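[job 4471] stage=fold_predict status=RUNNING
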Amino acid sequence: MMRAGLATVEITPPPNVPLDGFETRKTGSQGVHDPLFARAIVLDDGTTRIAWLIADLVGMPAATTATIRTEGACRAGTTGDRIMVSSTHTHGGPSPHPVPGVEADHAAHARWLEALPAALGVALGDAAAALEPAEILHGRTACTEVQHNRRFHMKDGGIRMVWDNPDPADDARLGPVDPEVQVIEIRRAGRPRGVIAQFACHATAVTGGNFLVTADWPGVAVRELERISGDQGLWVAVAQGCCGDITPTPPRGTFEVCEAKGSIVAHAMMRALVGATPVRSAPLAAARVPVRLPRKIAGPDPSPAGGFYEGEVQVFRIGDLAIVGLPGEPFVEIGLRIKALPGFRGIFVGGYTNDYDDAELGYIPTSGEYGGGYEPTASRVAPGADDLLVSAAREALSRLNERR
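[job 4471] inference complete, writing structure tokens
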């Protein structure tokens, strides 16, 4: 018998802490536009127990994830290797590490960072305490009105970023997007009690001129789905996809725009829920595969510098669905390649999972995109990292199938 438990904790930071996502911001937060939350789901089939934690943060370093797993494993009644820690990648949240170059209240920020793992451990424990019999459903739809690939491939062979305002007459093509909105619905006694939705788009509808704490469009989507579902008690979590090169379409920069974009995503989520059908029964399973991604020379030179980033790809099976968590900030094409792997009715693939630290890993471009533009220059990994991630995901998914 499948059981599910759901919980939410607020993680809004104190005033005047460093925000993350835009290097142009040199002072701390100036208030709160909307609160930040961490949402936990625990699933148990009587043999295996898994937990997925999704936080309204830009990301969390591996060391923080390790502490969360230690804090949460006992509370959740499982082991650390069966806890997945993901972030929505909002650029309106606090930095996951100290930022000494910003004029802010660093003591308050340090206290918030220190308290975060325990708070998220509480969320995992509360979800485990709320376990009840549940039915799991899956649905999907498409949404193309909100996102675009921010890398313009020009006719002269160069790459221009969207913020460079390239001339459309000189644009040969844009990179791909992932239009899919997938949902997992948790029902109890025939009633919807929880929804996890995944969509790949940077949470940057509000831009670097904003100094108010915000969950950006994922926060709007949560509130709007609660509203249009008619159930203000509905538990909703938005899981980020692979959006290293995907941003909201213009216009951007105001909370009115953010509300509009989040509302569009929420209505897509609702369409997916309307068509959701029960997942095929199968034991829960979890697996992790280590990855060693080659480091590159700093800056635009993609040549290997020697040494490797050591991380992991983590996967869950829920019936005939799979959840794939990737480290860093993968390009959308990496997610599309993994979603195309066989063996599952649906595959949720997201970055910013278990380890996101832009000073350590950052962007993971596809190998063909190292010809220019912002992300390959900022990336810490060399060409070929994309193939290694896909290979690790393939291996991890095959391990899930071995445990049926």
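[job 4471] summary: The first strand starts at residue 3 and ends at 10.
[job 4471] exit 0
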